[in-house]
Amino acid sequence: MSKLSIKKFLPALLALSSSQIWSNATASEIEVIEVYAQKRKQLDNEVSITVNQVKGDKLLNFGLKDSTELGLLIPNLKISQNAAEGTPPAVNIRGVGLIDYNTANTSPVAMYVDGMSVGSANNQLINLFDIEQVEVLKGPQGTLFGRNSTGGAILIRSKRPEAGTYGFITLGAGTDNMYKAAGAYNVEMSDNSAIRLVFNHNKYDYTSYNILADSPEAGMEQNDLRLSYLGQWEHLEWYLKLNYSHWNGIVQPVGNIGIYSDPISQRRCSISQVNAGNCVDAFGFNDGSNDYWAVSVNNDSPHHSINKGWTSEFTWDVNQDTQLVWLNGFNRLDREHAFNCDGSPAQLCEGQLGVKAEVLNNELRLQHSLGAHFLTFGVFALQERIFQKNDNDILRDLRGTPFGDNSAHFFYDNELKNNSFAVFSQFDWHLNKNWLATFGLRYADENLDYDSLSNINVVIDPTNLSGALLPFYHVKGEVKDNDLSGRLAINYSINQQHNLYYSLSNGYKSGGYNGGYLSSPEQAMLADYGPEELIANEFGGKFINDQKSLKVNWALFHYNYKNQQVFMNQPSLVEGAPPIQLLENVANSKIYGADLEILHSFNEALELSFGIGYIPHAQFEAFSDPLGNSLTNNRLPFTSEVNFNGVLSYRVVWDSKIDIQTNIGFDHQSDYYFDQNQSELASQPSYTLWSINSQFNFEKYTVRFWAKNIFDKEYSHLKFDLTNFLGMLEDFKGEGRRVGLELTYRF
């Protein structure tokens, strides 16, 4: 018999592939949920925090391509493409997030892939293929995960090699020239080891399209490759993963939302006229189409990125009670992303985000069982280097005209080096069979060195409109942080099916340097910022009935957000100049609300999952921006008051050979604002996205149909306010209706 943990891998042997849809549990019972929220496998009711889990099969069935779509299935989680696919996504959990496209910044929501911190927000755009499960931990994770997890953490776990030799291949096609190919091959090399090779290919056009003649069709081609090895011996286990990704394409074009009825007199439209698309920008442009998904923009904006790295996890069972784990990982991202920010055929705002980011992780963790108690102790070290090569060409078409005084081409070359070191410990103490106390503490030391160099091209000689390149600024500096974070939690088991918990925790997000697109040396001198802190109180419960057909998880939370880092997009004091974009510690905030998650199996055929996120209060306290505008009681950006989603699943089995399952899902977001100014123009009205998928399984074959945004609902990922600069809002449109059909063959 194979020594490759047969009890661990038997379900996979029975399922044979990641495309299998049915559970090993009795059909009328809810599947037992196991999570890694505390860096070890546990039942979710043993963990005194809110954990939302999504299995890889569910991601596959709904056609979710990458990490930005996880919010469709999890309440109080919103992930936006931000400034188009290929830029750092904006991740928001319970109102805590960072909305900034700067490639040097770090999100307050940590993301871990197979135990490794991805580092800066650049690396939070993850394609989801051959995934075991995703867990979303809500609230500060300042003890075990620590670094920059004030809002929470997202844990993505790939499928690992296992016993047995098998594989699958999937081919698919869909609307908007979408083509997909994916596959995996698992080989049991010996009784002790196995390897798994996985590939993933996506090619598609965007659902928004360009009506400007001779503009290239915008779309992306993505290729991912993963090779992993697992060896298990009597007291040792080694997991090694090598990954490579290559993306290439044309960036999704942006829309132009004009605000003027008459640009000469600068007479503004009403809100309803603006939203109807009946207005023009400061230069009189309107795309002239009544189709929401149509744009007209000189969008020859290429995207190219290469991502490669490794993950190594070495586990030593010192004895039956003690385990030592060493995690080591490296990742390098090279990315070039061109953009057009005026959303028109003119050359008024164009540029490029260029970045090379290298992240090295090391973690040594001791896990020791003391009878019913459990101790975790570890050290963590991260080194990250970010090299930015950005540029922004402003008002190019106005050069040589009376209106061209603010025309300039900015070039930015920044180098940032971050060193992070932490010591952490957590102790789970079973006071008796009903009471569990958890104590956690983490000390972290962070050091960031930055070197920011900028040059500017401006017209000096009116006869030479190509301009001259001049030094603009050169700023060097250092940001140091050290902080102490921790957690105290009490878990009371009423019985085996019902428990209540209370958790008090805090988390820190480190300071840094916002060297993105700065329009003056004074901004560059003031672009560093300090750490922020979040103190969280959470009271919740987890319940499952005796028949194991109903599961209810709920939580009430209250956050005290101190020295909050906020990306501010505000008008320049110079008329016609680009806006001032700052990331500063600006204010304190209060956030409170609730989470509810329900899973109910009505019978062997019908199951419902339903989640509600409710945040009635998420406001800045007393605060005025640098221009003197009061933002007191303004609502935090990207924070809906109400968010609920659900999935209704129906399954039919015939003659034990044919298995059909259909899922209908929805995600509803109430209205929210895109920035701190609480402008009605830069806001998203409430919307609901519906999806459906159906899988037909027969012997070695699966046919899968899926459709996302089936009613083609119009919504935006972001509306970036450039009204005082170009008389418009830059509209990053969401994804329209997309339908796909896939065939999987298992062997």
UniProtKB/TrEMBL annotation:
Boundaries of every TonB-dependent receptor plug domain copy? 46-153
Q: Name one GO cellular component term.
A: cell outer membrane
Q: Where in the cell is it found?
A: Cell outer membrane
Sorted alphabetically, the Gene Ontology BP terms of this entry are: iron ion transport
| UniProt signal peptide | 1-27
Any matching Pfam family: TonB_dep_Rec_b-barrel
* Positions of the TonB-dependent receptor-like beta-barrel domain: 285-710
Which keywords annotate this record?
A: Cell outer membrane, Ion transport, Iron, Iron transport, Membrane, Receptor, Signal, TonB box, Transmembrane, Transmembrane beta strand, Transport
Give the membrane topology.
Multi-pass membrane protein
- Similarity-based family: Belongs to the TonB-dependent receptor family.
State the PANTHER family in the record.
FERRICHROME IRON RECEPTOR-RELATED (PTHR32552), TONB-DEPENDENT OUTER MEMBRANE RECEPTOR (PTHR32552:SF81)
Can you say what this protein is called?
TonB-dependent receptor
Where does this protein come from, organism-wise? Pseudoalteromonas phenolica
